[in-house]
Amino acid sequence: MARLKRTVVELLDTGRYLATVKAIETAEGKYGEQLAWEFRLDDSDATLRAWCSMTMSAGSKCGQWVRALLGDIPESLDTGDLIGLPCVLDVASLPKTNGDGEYNKVNAVLPAKRKPKPVVVVDGDGKEIPF
């Protein structure tokens, strides 16, 4: 016999959160095979799950999320290459339509603000000039 504990879901406030892609798996969904994404929020141990189709085009949710992570949509992609990449999640708290409380929805995956690459200044002899 299994012992179960009540699951309490802590809702996030609507807003934007720094996160990292933790996992991406294929899952059978209501409309066919989908990608189930798991994101870990940077400031806590909290995770969020979100789903999208496996269509990687400029107009699809999958394509938009991949572009946010990589800067462009490649010709082909192993989703494992996205694990560990930083992003910003646009999150909303919404009421469930069946009256079972509220849940968080990932509205969008946005690019993380990346640190700018350091500028290297070179003198006439090709030697770097320190700052």
Short précis:
With 131 residues, the protein is mainly beta.
Structure description:
The chain has a single domain (about 15-115), classed as OB fold (Dihydrolipoamide Acetyltransferase, E2P), CATH 2.40.50. By secondary structure, it is mainly β. The strands form two sheets. The protein has a five-stranded antiparallel β-sheet. The protein has one helix at about 60-70; strands spanning about 15-30, 30-40, 45-55, 85-95, 100-110, 120, 130.
Quick tags:
OB fold (Dihydrolipoamide Acetyltransferase, E2P), 43% strand
Give the arrangement of secondary structure elements.
Elements: E1 15-29, E2 32-41, E3 47-53, H1 61-70, E4 86-95, E5 102-111, E6 121-122, E7 128-129
Antiparallel strand pairs: 1-2, 1-4, 2-3, 4-5, 6-7
CATH class: Mainly Beta
Number of helices: 1
Number of structurally distinct domains: 1
Tell me the number of strands: 7
Main beta-sheet strand count, sense and barrel state: 5 strands, antiparallel
Question: How are strands sequenced across the largest beta sheet?
Answer: 3-2-1-4-5
Overall, the morphology is elongated
